[in-house]
Amino acid sequence: MAIPPPGTGRNKKNLPTRVYLASLGIFILFAAGLWFLPYNDSPSERTFIAEHLDAQGNDRLERPLTLIPKKPEVLEIKKKTLYFVIDDAGHNLTQLQKFLDFPGKITIAVIPDLAYTKEASKKILEAGKALILHMPMEALRNDAGADALRVGDDEITIRSKLKRALDQVVGAHGMNNHMGSKATADIPLMTEVFRYLKENNLFFLDSLTNSQSVATRLGREMNYTVGERDVFLDNEKTQEFILQAIEEGKKTADQKGHAVMIGHVWTSELAEVLTEIYPQLLDEGYTLDDLPHLFALPVDDDSTGN
Fold first, then answer.
1. For 64-118, how does the pLDDT look when each residue is reduced to its tens digit (9 = 90+)?
2. C-alpha to C-alpha distance for 120 and 87, rounded to whole angstroms
3. pTM: predicted TM-score of the whole model, two decimal places
4. Would you list the DSSP string of 96-132?
5. Which of 242, 304, 230 shows the shortest CA–CA distance to 268?
6. What are the structural domain ranges in the chain?
7. Class assignment of domain 80-294?
8. How far is it, in rounded angstroms, from Cα 153 to Cα 139?
9. Helices 117-126 and 155-168: crossing angle, nearest 10°?
């Protein structure tokens, strides 16, 4: 029997099947390609094209890119803060009133055991001013009074004197020393004072009546923040001296961010100068604030400070 030549017989019968399978494969490949190609007419694609073509239809991406530098962060610089502390309130109300009328924020320190201690304390709070205890403490030369804190006082005596004084100056946020040139240089005494104040969430401002005061160093060792006086305003009771002292305080605030300036309630010239210079201080960029804010303590008041 003769053998059929190639391309005839069963191969001829399989040809349509092969053509069909080849066509099907081409179709599947074409469909798959369409599936994976991006759909250029989608909203996101139209947005991409519009953003990268200029008005003439040219591709922006083909032109050199102009790098826009990142805008530097602007840090808010806190204004220089002035803390005015007025000592020796409690002798009378007439002297006090001039400082209560002052439009800015100030702190007033009241001495215990005076004729107007309690009434002055009440009026200070009602006026929206910050109140602190001006605690008599032993001096090197002058007599600070019978109930002053003295070197050699034991713990019970110190706590009793402080409690008695604070019970009269109700609402005080802290205390500073009245006199105290001897007391503030004594480590045992100041240790007990700071323990009591710290327990009662009261700050201490060192009036720095003695350059040998241990208050700041001791406070640091006890993890208790102590403030310091920078300037005395009225060592001479003249407007010229007071203005010069305020200028010194401003320079201190410019350098370290704040300045604590102490004056006295019986210096009428001080009240006049502060009232007169107040708008100028604000114009120069200074802020007046309550002393407790220096120690991050809240104060409820309605007085203005800037």
1. 433 334 444 433 445 799 999 999 999 999 999 999 999 999 999 999 999 999 9
2. 12
3. 0.73
4. HHHHHT-SS--EEEE-TTSTTHHHHHHHHHHTT-EEE
5. 242
6. 11-62, 80-294
7. alpha beta
8. 14
9. 60
